Amino acid sequence: MPRVMVERFAKQYLIAEEVIGTELIVNRFGFVTGLIQETDIDATAFIRVASLFVDQKPHLGLGRPPVSTTFISLCEEQIHEPVQRNQRVEVQPPKPVIFHDGGLMKRPTPATAVIILLWLPFGIILAVIRILGAFIFPLWLMPYVITLSFCRVTVKGKPPRTKAGNAGGVLFVCNHRTMIDPLVIAYALGRRIPAVLISDLSRFYNILSPVPIVRFTRNRDVDAVIMKRELSKGDLVVCPEGSICHQPFVLRFSAMFAELTDRIVPVAVNCRFGFFQRPLRSWNGLYLFFLFMNPTIEYEITFLDQLPLEATCSSGKSPYDVANHVQRILAETLGFECTQLGRKAKYTVLT
């Protein structure tokens, strides 16, 4: 494997100090070509291992014959076969992989890679049809459009009805799985509900979104005023994680939403899709396109009971306690794990 593809994982999750692998060719424009520099991988690995252990031998070498086992001859103890089942090996519990921004959901085995390549032209056509369908057709036609485009949305629970008068709107608080979470929640409710999204999201979403988009500025005071104004008009959807998490975890919630209203309805969101997760380091407008290229998309929306007044800030609870409570009940509903890591931690790891 190329070193750049495995080094971060090996150091962070396998506690490796040094990583030796093939090197990728970088062109004069600074882009990786995907080609490797080495012509003889085994010989190069042998030389690099020998230079790493100049005055001593590695204690143990593991390898699977006949590939890449030349360097094992340098080691004091050599194991060429997998560990037997009756042989006791002490290992540390693996560190959970919370932040993973890979583009593929499936492991790219040769057979899977061929299937993905064959699917690509059909996936592009399907993505265009799905995007145009969401943009053109009214909300009451969406169930038929979704079914015909190989999508399925399962709705559980009973959301609250909209109250007449000036009582203000309900704040639907959900975990964040994909960029279309607010759209699916609006479909489940049967009405166009504004969604709060980050300000640096592509304007492409404003054009295509069938629901109004309210943009965060990342200024807490300004965002609080914006959300309060929108709630005075009606219902609103927000994802307090602030970032998408594809793994079975619920990231730490921002507590700002708890300060604005006591009409909070937690919404547990889960989804499953086939091949594509998201494009890597590209224009974020492609995220929607990649998602809709999947052969099937399955969403499960669970509306939980509205928080009682004693569980909100109206009873004297701190916003952080309310946010942690909502995070916890959403994780329990989904069977996910809560984490204290948030958006900043995610992008620190991924960049």
Automatic annotation (TrEMBL):
<dbReference type="GO" id="GO:0016020">
    <property type="term" value="C:membrane"/>
</dbReference>
<dbReference type="Pfam" id="PF23270">
    <property type="entry name" value="HAD_RAM2_N"/>
</dbReference>
<keyword id="KW-0444">Lipid biosynthesis</keyword>
<keyword id="KW-0012">Acyltransferase</keyword>
<feature type="domain" description="Phospholipid/glycerol acyltransferase">
    <location>
        <begin position="170"/>
        <end position="272"/>
    </location>
</feature>
<keyword id="KW-0812">Transmembrane</keyword>
<dbReference type="InterPro" id="IPR002123">
    <property type="entry name" value="Plipid/glycerol_acylTrfase"/>
</dbReference>
<keyword id="KW-1133">Transmembrane helix</keyword>
<keyword id="KW-0808">Transferase</keyword>
<dbReference type="GO" id="GO:0016791">
    <property type="term" value="F:phosphatase activity"/>
</dbReference>
<dbReference type="InterPro" id="IPR056462">
    <property type="entry name" value="HAD_RAM2/GPAT1-8"/>
</dbReference>
<feature type="transmembrane region" description="Helical">
    <location>
        <begin position="111"/>
        <end position="129"/>
    </location>
</feature>
<protein>
    <submittedName>
        <fullName>Glycerol-3-phosphate acyltransferase 5-like</fullName>
    </submittedName>
</protein>
<keyword id="KW-0472">Membrane</keyword>
<dbReference type="Pfam" id="PF01553">
    <property type="entry name" value="Acyltransferase"/>
</dbReference>
<dbReference type="GO" id="GO:0090447">
    <property type="term" value="F:glycerol-3-phosphate 2-O-acyltransferase activity"/>
</dbReference>
<keyword id="KW-1208">Phospholipid metabolism</keyword>
<comment type="similarity">
    <text>Belongs to the GPAT/DAPAT family.</text>
</comment>
<keyword id="KW-0594">Phospholipid biosynthesis</keyword>
<keyword id="KW-0443">Lipid metabolism</keyword>
<dbReference type="GO" id="GO:0010143">
    <property type="term" value="P:cutin biosynthetic process"/>
</dbReference>
